[in-house]
Amino acid sequence: MGPYYILPPDVNRVPAWIRNNKKLYPYFKDCIGAIDGTIISAWVPQGYQGVYRCRKGYLAQNVMVSCDFDMKFTLVLAGWEGSANDARIFKDTLSNLRYQFPIPSP
Hints:
This protein is of the alpha+beta class. It contains 5 helices and 3 strands, in the order αααβαββα. A 3-stranded antiparallel beta sheet has the order 1-2-3, covered by helices on one side. β2 (about 60-65) and β3 (about 75-80) form a beta hairpin. The protein is elongated. This is DDE Tnp4 domain-containing protein.
């Protein structure tokens, strides 16, 4: 179901409501969406609990999500260890072609 609901954005299209807004356009003309990470509680087998213990002290997985300006998911990466830093996950996403992370052309 993921490929049906999670679609890469058109990285060369600026949404009309941004393109037609003189206040927003200068700041968002090159933006294709938003990215954030969150930690979600998880059940983890005994042998793996060390790396899944998050900075808040409980067992969790780190999930990185991106969405476009229409609030549609463009990427969901779940399952990272709770101890993984958001920057580490983002860097891995950019360097790993299998994720097909949308990168706009210059």
